[in-house]
């Protein structure tokens, strides 16, 4: 079996000084290029300078000596040293070190001792406030440890801090006790209400209560409530026809039923009424509306139905009125066909008087309107097969 002879390595061509690989000095081509510190390394040379561990763009750490290291070797060579880092001075011991030296103590600097200029430091201690411990309230910087309630020393934040009128800060509870309302119901001032041994009437008599009657506050002429003339404030405002009413005055002028925007009807007398009273005062009247006596049959026979037609007075101008009766047609009862306008009661078939609508209407060439059956009789096709004219086909 023939073996393929190994290719002998060729001598690497060196690049000019400062242009090749920093590790070996040879030319670096694009296919094997690794970049660090703005210089190109061979992929095979891109290793830690101490432990020769292969590196990549994540593990590589560029040292101040212009060489590259892995993270562990970089920390050993250039990282922080001393207690707590496991390098240099050894790790922290739970007991005294072999040379009987105690672990070093942490030094805490109290910035409150560094006094600031009057009016520019912390309002509580007067010390300089640095950005790392700054808390703002009313545009003034406080130390975080000084940002406490003035009365109970509760630690505050931006949610529960309350700025008092004395330029100090309080928690919500202390702020309420010091600056909030006092008296009955607020657990301050006059003490709690007691109910032991007292009836409801006695409690009501001893409880201070004031119900302001805004109707006694008269408004300028034409600007107050239309019912009482008093000033109308936003909390009790009701609107009708662009006029403001007191909520307690917004009731029916006849039956005094309380109203709202659904039940209220604006009358022509500039008053408001419920729907029932509005119908009695301003609604239509006559038979069928419950105001004049209804028809009564004394002999047991039903009265003849009378259809009201505008058969009195002057008729409309020619071509302007109803096509059937000639009287004026108003919008509430108007029906329209191809030949003109009609009363709703006149909008019926010319032959059979059947009531018509837009679905069964047929305009005839004679200017009248018909139902479909009557239109077919007068103007439809005739002859054998249509049941008109020559008669239908018969079987002998």
UniProtKB/TrEMBL annotation:
Keywords: LIM domain, Metal-binding, Nucleus, Repeat, Zinc. It comes from the Eukaryota. InterPro entries: Znf_LIM. It is found in: Nucleus. Residues 19-80, 120-181, 223-284, 320-381 form the LIM zinc-binding domain. CDD domains: LIM_CRP_like. Its main location: nucleus. This is Muscle LIM protein Mlp84B-like.
């Amino acid at each position: 079996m023939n073996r393929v002879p190994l290719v002998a390595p060729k001598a690497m061509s060196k690049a000019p000084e400062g242009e090749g690989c920093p590790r070996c000095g040879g030319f670096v081509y694009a296919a094997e290029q690794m970049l660090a510190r703005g210089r190109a390394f061979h992929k095979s040379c891109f290793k830690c300078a101490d432990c020769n561990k292969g590196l990549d763009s994540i593990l590589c750490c560029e040292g101040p000596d212009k060489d590259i290291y892995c993270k562990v070797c970089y920390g050993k060579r250039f990282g922080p040293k001393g207690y707590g880092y496991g390098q240099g001075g050894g790790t922290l011991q739970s007991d005294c070190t072999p040379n009987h030296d105690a672990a070093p103590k942490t030094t805490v600097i109290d910035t409150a001792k560094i006094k600031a200029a009057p009016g520019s430091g912390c309002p509580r201690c007067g010390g300089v406030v640095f950005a790392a411990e700054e808390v703002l309230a009313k545009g003034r910087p406080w130390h975080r440890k000084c940002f406490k309630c003035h009365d109970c020393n509760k630690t505050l934040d931006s949610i529960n801090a309350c700025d008092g009128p004395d330029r100090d800060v309080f928690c919500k509870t202390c702020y309420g006790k010091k600056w909030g309302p006092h008296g009955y119901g607020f657990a301050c001032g006059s003490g709690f209400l007691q109910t032991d041994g007292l009836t409801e009437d006695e409690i009501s008599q001893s409880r201070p209560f004031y119900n302001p009657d805004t109707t006694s506050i008269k408004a300028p002429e034409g600007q107050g409530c239309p019912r009482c003339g008093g000033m109308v404030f936003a909390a009790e405002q009701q609107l009708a026809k662009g006029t403001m009413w007191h909520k307690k005055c917004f009731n029916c002028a006849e039956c005094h039923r309380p109203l709202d925007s659904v039940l209220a009807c604006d009358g022509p007398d500039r008053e408001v009424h419920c729907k029932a009273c509005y119908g009695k005062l301003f609604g239509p009247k006559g038979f069928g509306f419950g105001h004049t006596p209804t028809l009564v049959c004394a002999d047991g026979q039903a009265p003849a139905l009378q259809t009201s037609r505008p058969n009195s007075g002057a008729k409309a101008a020619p071509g302007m009125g109803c096509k059937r009766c000639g009287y004026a047609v108003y919008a509430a009862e108007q029906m329209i066909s191809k030949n003109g306008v009609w009363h709703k009661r006149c909008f019926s078939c010319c032959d059979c008087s059947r009531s018509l609508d837009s679905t069964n209407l047929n305009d005839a060439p004679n200017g009248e309107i018909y139902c479909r059956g009557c239109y077919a009789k007068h103007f439809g096709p005739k002859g054998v097969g249509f049941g008109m004219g020559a008669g239908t086909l018969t079987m002998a």
